[in-house]
């Protein structure tokens, strides 16, 4: 754990807020709740051992943090059971969920000030992901409450926000002290290898990714129904 008790506590709250938002979008599914809590606890325990901070290991140990969630997303989109689950997700609530990116980006800024991530990963650098968070409540309001935003516009917004997400993820990976590091050699991205910030790549980012992909799928299916 990084010696940042205030930020550590705040990020725990942010992570469980993300869980709660997705739990609501999934119709208060107990499976979502239980699996999420188990995954978070597992990743916390692994991170606390320092397992992820062996940057020379091959294959990269960090794959254990991100790989299972990506495989789970693939399972959802390629199996009948997974597709049935995606059909139950509330697109409006998935859209509101992206507001979680506001406190995440503010946390990244504070981590930069503390020397735990590079400036390039903040909205003072190359990270514009906060725009997705700031726009999410307005998009959800005009699309689902006022009915003043078209389906095509909502799909476009999701695609643009996906690009913002990919941008910061790529920047974060290339700023980490891996053998293939490209950015931020003077202040690399180390926070995500510690508890609780391991939850950012291991849970929050995959949930944000899933929320976009599920929303796009459901919006396209709505057209074809």
The secondary-structure element order is: HHHHHHHHH
Measured by DSSP, the beta-strand proportion falls in under 5%
Largest sheet data: none
Q: Compute the separation of the termini in Å.
A: 49 Å
Report the radius of gyration as a whole number of Å. Answer: 17 Å
Give the low-confidence spans: none
Number of helices: 9
Morphology: globular
Number of strands: 0
Mean pLDDT: 96
Structure in words:
This protein has 225 residues and is mainly α. The protein contains nine helices and no strands. The mean pLDDT is 96.
Quick recap:
This protein has helices at residues 5-25, 30-48, 63-78, 80-88, 91-97, 101-113, 130-145, 151-175, 199-224. By secondary structure, the protein is mainly alpha-helical.
Task: Give the tags.
225 residues; mainly alpha; 9 helices; globular
Task: Please give the structural blueprint.
Layout: H1 5-25, H2 30-48, H3 63-78, H4 80-88, H5 91-97, H6 101-113, H7 130-145, H8 151-175, H9 199-224
């Amino acid at each position: 754990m990084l010696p940042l008790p205030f930020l550590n506590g705040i990020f725990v709250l942010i992570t469980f807020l993300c869980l709660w938002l997705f739990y609501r979008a999934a119709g208060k599914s107990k499976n979502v709740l239980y699996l999420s809590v188990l995954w978070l606890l597992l990743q916390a325990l692994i991170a606390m051992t320092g397992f992820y901070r062996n940057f020379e290991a091959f294959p990269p140990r960090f794959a254990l943090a991100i790989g299972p969630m990506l495989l789970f997303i693939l399972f959802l989109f390629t199996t009948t059971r997974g597709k049935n689950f995606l059909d139950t997700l509330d697109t409006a609530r998935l859209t509101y969920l992206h507001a979680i990116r506001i406190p995440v980006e503010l946390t990244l800024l504070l981590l930069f000030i503390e020397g735990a991530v590079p400036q390039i990963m903040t909205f003072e650098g190359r990270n514009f992901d906060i725009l997705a968070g700031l726009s999410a409540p307005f998009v959800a309001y005009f699309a689902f409450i006022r009915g003043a935003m078209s389906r095509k516009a909502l799909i476009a917004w999701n695609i643009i926000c996906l690009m913002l997400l990919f941008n910061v993820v790529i920047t974060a990976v290339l700023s980490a002290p891996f053998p293939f590091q490209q950015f931020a050699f003077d202040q690399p991205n180390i926070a995500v290898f510690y508890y609780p910030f391991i939850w950012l790549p291991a849970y929050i980012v995959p949930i944000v990714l899933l929320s976009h992909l599920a929303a796009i799928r459901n919006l396209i299916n709505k057209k074809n129904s």
